[in-house]
C-alpha cells in the first residue's frame, strides 16, 4: 500500500532549507530526502518542525564501511535532535563489490528496529536481482532518476512486480527545455491552469511514483502544493502524450559507469578487509 505521495528533495541546499522545510508538511509534502554526502543533515534537523514529517537519508561514505552503524547513528543524532524521525535509510549507490555486504548492514538496522524502512538508490533491475537473491529484507524503495524524457521502464517494471516503491528524483530533468518548451505540455498546462512542473508531478503521481522535486524558494514550494496538484486532470490521452516524450534522456549519472576503475579497486580492497 502506498504510504507517501510526494517528498521534497534537499540537494544542494543547506541553510536555504530554512525557507521551505518548516512549511513543507503544511503544503502536503510527506518527507524530505537528504544524504550524508549532501552535508545538510544538521540543517534538516534544525528546520523540520512537524514530527509527522518524515526524513529519508542515505549512506554514501564507503570509507565508513567498518563503522557503518556509528555512521548511521551520527546521521540519526543530527536529524532527530529536535524530535523529528529518521524514518528511512537508503543505500545511495550500487557500490561494486560492496553493495551486498552493505545491504546486510542495512537489514540489521531494520530488523533491530533502528529505522522504519530501508531502500536503495540508483539500482538497475539487474543489480536489484543480484541483491535480492539472498537478502532477508527486500528494498522497500528504489530512488532513481525518472522523468518523461528518461522513464527507466525495465527498472520500473521490475520494481512494480516486486512491490518496490519508485521514488523519482530530478523529476523536471533539470528544467530541460524539451519539457518546458514542449508544445503539448504547454497546451495541457494552459488547459489545467497550472504550471508544466505541476503537470509533470501529476504524471509521476498517476504513474504511482513518488516525485521529490527540490527547491529552496518558498513561492516555488507553494506552487507545488499537493492540493493544487490533486485538482489536475490528466486523462489517458494526456498520459500517453507525456509517455511519448521518452528519449533515453538521462540528465544525471549512470550507475553502470559512475565509478572509475581505480574506485572499484578501492571498493574491492575494502570488501576484502585490506582497507
Number of helices: 13
The amount of beta strand, in percent, is 5-15%
- CATH T-level topology: TIM Barrel
Helix content: 40-55%
Shape: globular
Spatial strand arrangement across the major sheet: 1-2-3-4-5-6-7-8
Succession of helices and strands: EHEHEHEHEHEHEHHHEHHHH
- Sheet/helix structural class: alpha/beta
Uncertain parts: none
End-to-end separation in angstroms reads: 42 Å
Q: What is the C-alpha radius of gyration, as a whole number of Å?
A: 19 Å
Quantity of strands, as a count: 8
CATH superfamily: NADP-dependent oxidoreductase domain
CATH architectural designation: Alpha-Beta Barrel
CATH class: Alpha Beta
Describe this structure in words.
The chain is built from 13 helices and 8 strands. With about 280 residues, it is an alpha/beta fold. The protein has one domain (about 5-270): TIM Barrel (Alpha-Beta Barrel). The chain has an 8-stranded parallel β-sheet. Helix 3 links the parallel strand 3 (about 55-60) and strand 4 (about 85-90). The chain is globular and about 60 Å long. The mean pLDDT is about 95.
Strand and helix map with partners:
Blueprint: E1 7-9, H1 21-24, E2 31-33, H2 41-47, E3 54-59, H3 68-80, E4 85-91, H4 99-111, E5 117-121, H5 125-132, E6 141-145, H6 153-161, E7 165-169, H7 177-180, H8 183-192, H9 196-207, E8 210-211, H10 218-223, H11 226-230, H12 236-243, H13 261-271
Parallel strand pairs: 1-2, 2-3, 3-4, 4-5, 5-6, 6-7, 7-8
Helix pairs in contact: 2-3
